[in-house]
Amino acid sequence: MHKQKLLDYVGELSKQLNIQHPEDLSRKLLILIEGAITTSYVMGDPDAADNAREIAQMLLKQVSP
Fold first, then answer.
1. Per-state percent for the chain, helix, strand, coil, to nearest 5
2. Using one digit for the tens of pLDDT, what is the confidence trace for 18-59?
3. Whether 19 contacts 43, CB under 8 Å
4. Distance of CA 20 to the CA centre of its chain
């Protein structure tokens, strides 16, 4: 349930970008978010969120017109 709500939220944000396939970006960002949370928690990586932000910025540049 939590993951679906997060996907829905990210989906709403992705749709605001007016890109061709916002649902694809939403799924990629969800995986990125979940991976950062897991990496931070399991491996104790304090930089996981910063690394995820950098990757998200690269994804956004790829899909931006």
1. 80, 0, 20
2. 999 999 999 999 999 999 999 999 999 999 999 999 999 999
3. no
4. 17
Rounded Cα gap, residues 19 and 64, in angstroms = 7
Largest CA-CA distance found in the chain, in angstroms, rounded: 37
What contacts 17, CB < 8 A, 6 or more positions away? Answer: 25, 60, 63, 64
Segment 3-17, tens digit of pLDDT: 999 999 999 999 999
Q: What is the pTM assigned to this prediction? A: 0.89
At residue 2, what is the residue type? H
